Amino acid sequence: MTGLAEARAAIIAAGQRLDHLGWVPATAGNISVRLGDGSIAITRSGGHKGFLSDDGVIRVGLDGVPLREGDRPSAETGLHCGIYRRFAAAGAVLHGHSVPVTVLSRRLAGSIRLEGYELLKAFPGLATHQAAVALPVFENDQDIARLQDAVETRWAEEATIPPGYLLRGHGIYVWGADMPQALMRLEAVEFMLRCELEARRLS
Ligand SMILES: CSC[C@@H](O)[C@@H](O)C(=O)COP(=O)(O)O
Ligand SMILES: [Zn+2]
């Protein structure tokens, strides 16, 4: 059962890793972990995710409401909570703003297809490179409740939902059972998107 201290340590370490990789420029990105009591530990809004302290991680309910009055959680808390509500197995959620995610999502509407990559095996249920995953790309929206509605509408239409999606010109969301799995999936997706970007430069 994940407690707040453990979640804070995992979120702080993940923030440093994402910053090191250049995926959370300025104050971009947000990170969360589901706690054993069903609440969510999530980054405060507006801080640099590479320099988080314990105080930069606060608790919200599954409805996104802070458990301590006056706390201001990530502006995108509604997207994190939407993932936790929909996927009981989700234990950690990562959001970043890398260059490949931003450039490709501005070019490609609807979805980004990843096919033939060995790293596809980072996705659940895939044991071979002879596979394809279509990552949804949603139009960016500053109205997070409306954006979450669009995400849920799309999820309702899909037979298989990959553990991630992109927001057009904005960033990426990826989740996993715990922080190591969420990081592994994000790194795999980012690698494949970097390849897609390079391939487009060559062609
Ligand atoms: C640096 S602006 C980025 C924000 O608008 C947002 O997209 C973001 O990722 C971080 O918001 P935050 O409220 O700190 O979680
Ligand atoms: Zn963002």
Automatic annotation (TrEMBL):
Q: Which cofactor does it need?
A: Zn(2+)
Instruction: Cite the binding residues for Zn(2+).
Output: H95, H97
NCBIfam families for the chain: PRK09220.1, salvage_mtnB
Provide the reaction this enzyme catalyses: 5-(methylsulfanyl)-D-ribulose 1-phosphate = 5-methylsulfanyl-2,3-dioxopentyl phosphate + H2O
| Protein name as it appears in the record | Methylthioribulose-1-phosphate dehydratase
This protein's pathway reads: Amino-acid biosynthesis; L-methionine biosynthesis via salvage pathway; L-methionine from S-methyl-5-thio-alpha-D-ribose 1-phosphate: step 2/6
- Domain of life the protein comes from: Bacteria
State the Pfam families in the record.
Answer: Aldolase_II
What are the entry keywords? Amino-acid biosynthesis, Lyase, Metal-binding, Methionine biosynthesis, Zinc
Q: Which Gene3D superfamilies match?
A: Class II aldolase/adducin N-terminal domain
Record text on cofactor binding: Binds 1 zinc ion per subunit.
Q: Which residues form the Class II aldolase/adducin N-terminal domain?
A: 9-197
The terms under GO molecular function for this entry are: methylthioribulose 1-phosphate dehydratase activity
Q: Gene encoding this chain?
A: mtnB
* Record's function text: Catalyzes the dehydration of methylthioribulose-1-phosphate (MTRu-1-P) into 2,3-diketo-5-methylthiopentyl-1-phosphate (DK-MTP-1-P).
Q: Which family does the UniProt entry place this protein in? A: Belongs to the aldolase class II family. MtnB subfamily.
Q: Which SMART domains match?
A: Aldolase_II
Where along the sequence do coiled-coil regions lie? none
* EC number annotated for this UniProt entry: 4.2.1.109
| Entry keyword annotation includes Nuclease | no
